[in-house]
Design a protein that fits this description.
about 200 residues
Length: about 200
């Protein structure tokens, strides 16, 4: 299709391409979000799309970045315990309220090898894990956690809770854990490393 006369600023058009791609993925899966379907949905040419993104992979990476940057980091880390609880509550409530980012994350995680997303997925997840690990180290410095805390292992425990919440939000089942149960899981991890 040929692009209409209306011209959008590059950042607006880029955002439109990302949103349409997300919608197509959410409707029928990653394989459905082809360049042809994206351009038809926006009534633009492939050349117009390629002006903003080199290929579909770049669009998918922009979606991945958006999903992972959407994981809430709430407020300053004045008190690590309060910070972890605030972030946990915000993430749990936000994910259950809107499970679309979780669905997008797993669609991208399961992308075929020719999409070449695994290294970027790995890098983003390690960045998130590193932020959690740094928060735990700050908790050690604040005297909340034991000095011998395995910050890497504990950060991956928190990552597993994050992934479980993503999965649970997608099942849309009434017997998924409550907010209190989720906080209990967070508190069990914190209690295991707390200085007594």
């Amino acid at each position: 299709m040929v692009e209409g006369k209306r011209r959008y600023k590059p950042d607006v058009r880029k955002a439109q391409i990302i949103e349409v791609t997300k919608r197509l993925i959410l409707e029928k899966g990653l394989a459905w979000a082809t360049v042809t379907r994206i351009t038809k949905s926006l009534n633009i040419s492939k050349a117009a799309l390629y002006y903003h993104f080199k290929n579909r992979r770049e669009i998918l990476l922009a979606i991945l970045k958006e999903v992972l940057e959407g994981i809430p980091v709430i407020g300053e880390i004045d008190d690590v315990l309060a910070f972890i609880r605030r972030c946990s509550i915000s993430f749990f409530e936000g994910t259950l309220k809107d499970p679309r980012p979780a669905r997008l994350f797993f669609e991208l995680l399961c992308a075929p090898p020719d999409e070449n997303l695994r290294d970027d997925m790995h890098r983003h997840l390690l960045g998130l894990q590193g932020m959690i690990e740094a928060t735990l180290r700050k908790g050690i410095a604040q005297g909340h956690f034991r000095e011998d805390t395995d910050t890497k292992g504990v950060s991956w425990e928190f990552m597993s809770l994050l992934m479980t919440t993503f999965l649970g939000s997608m099942t849309v089942t009434s017997d998924f854990i409550s907010m209190q149960q989720a906080l209990n899981a967070v508190n069990r991890i914190l209690d295991s490393i707390r200085k007594h």
